[in-house]
Structure formats: structure tokens, C-alpha cells
Target: LysR family transcriptional regulator
Amino acid sequence: MEFATKDFMNAIGPPAAIVFASWIFMTFLQQRYIAAFDRFRSLIASYRDQKLSDDRRKNLKQQIFMYKERCNLMKTATNIGLFAAMFLLLALICAALDTMFPGMPIFKHILSFSALIGLGLVMVAAGYVVRENNLLQGALNSEISDIPDLEDANKHRP
Model:
């Protein structure tokens, strides 16, 4: 049961790079989630203000529900991203174990499946970000909908 450190490091190097990339992606997801949540809370605080015009109150109500949906999307994306990272970590562990215990094909199989599942989950999480981006366009349009001058000018822009 002897193995070379060089072989061990070569085995875990590529999976480690993928794991680090997944954690960077997780940071990206978390930042978007926090930004959406902070905006959601500020919209709620504005909505509680009794000095709003009816148009502004209606606009804020729309945005509150839109940002709530964004928060839910980013929470789901973040959770999926965490599962992706766990599967990619499992691939890293199996790469190390395969080097330490050669001749046991179970590690290669677990490594392959966990890497594929982890990468697939990264794609799913990215899909949630695309959905969340589409909601941002609605938020941009909604933000100026209670200001007639801007709303009219915006209708003539792409």
C-alpha cells in the first residue's frame, strides 16, 4: 500500500482546481442573494412609509413581490451550488483514495459520478441565475413606472 506523494498530488490537483472554482461560484451566488435580500428589505421599509403616492405604493408593491421571487431563486441557486461543491469535494476525496488504494475501482466510479453530478448541479444553479437576471429587467422597468416623464421616454428605448 505504498504510493508516491507526486502521484497523490497529481491525482488531487485537477479536482482541487474544480472545487476552488465551485467555491468562487458559490461566492458569486451568495453575493447576488445578499444583494437581492438587502434590496427586498429596503423596499419593505419604503412601503411602510405612509407618505407615498398611490402610484409609488403600487410600484413598490410590484417590486416587493419581484424581489421576493429573486430572493427565492438565489436561495435555491445557492443551495444547489452548495450541493454541487459537496459532490465536487467527494470527487476530490475519491481521487486521493484512488491513489492511496489502487486497484479498487469503486473510487474511480464514485469520483466519476460525483464529478458529473457536481458539474451538472453547477449548470442548474447557473440556470437559476439566468432566471433571476430576467427578473432584473422587470425591476428596471418597474422602478421608473411611477414617474411619467421617465416612463414615456423609456418606451422609445430598447
Remarks:
- The helical segments are 5-48, 54-100, 105-143, 148-154.
